[in-house]
Amino acid sequence: MRFTRKIPIASLILSILVLWQPTLADSRSNLSWNREEKISSLWNQNNCPGGSSQSFRLGGELNNPTTYNLQKLRNLRDALKTQKPALVTEITVSFQTGSGPRTETYYGVPLWELINNPKAGGGLKPGNSGVNSKNSFLRQYVLVDATDCYGAVVAIGEIQPNFEGKTVLVAFAKKGSDGKIVPLTDEGFARLVVPGDKAGGRYVSNVTNILILSAPASPLKPKYF
Questions:
Q1: Alpha-carbon radius of gyration of the chain
Q2: How far apart are CA 224 and CA 25, in angstroms?
Q3: DSSP-assigned beta bridge partners for residue 151
Q4: Cα separation of 196 and 89, whole Å?
Q5: What is the pLDDT of residues 79-128, one digit of tens each?
Q6: For residue 90, what are the contacts with CB-CB under 8 A and spacing of at least 6?
Q7: Which string of DSSP letters, residue by residue, matches 78-133?
């Protein structure tokens, strides 16, 4: 008799578990759906409209974060030329594009001066130095974003004068076909110019952000090297 009484009880428990499983699945599904809705909403709030840039933000790991428009960038170039008459602010470059080779002469502010000059970014701040802090600035890089979310990276070591010392330019004008200096009307008010690059992939136009960041510490343990 005791054995026969336990059978209905066991059956009842199994029935409850079976009925409860869809409810649990539904709740998990709802959680996933809510998370997707939140991610979608966040993306919509921060989507990239594209179009012509009118200003860019200089920020990240530097002392004087600020915002530049065309006039402010011109004024900075003039102030830097007064401070350092030999400073290179004009570069002629040749690079490959999707429509073929292109040669341009650009005018602007050297990226290194934009970041480090006291009249501009005021110098690098220490970033993520990793386990070994020696030459920690060599872990830093510049992320340049466009209005359409296109982006490219320049390592600090590429522009630091004691290393590669490349004159990467944040240009605001170029030489027209008639030899006159004209604004970058078809490229936003500012674009990145990276001499030495064979292709123009890092020639970011419509610049909207210039951010100094640090590479994360390596996730690999010594045994993997």
A1: 28
A2: 41
A3: 145
A4: 16
A5: 999 999 999 999 999 999 988 999 999 999 999 999 999 999 999 988 77
A6: 105, 106, 107
A7: HHHHHH-TT---EEEEEEEETTEEEEEEEEEEEHHHHHHSTTTT--BPP----S--
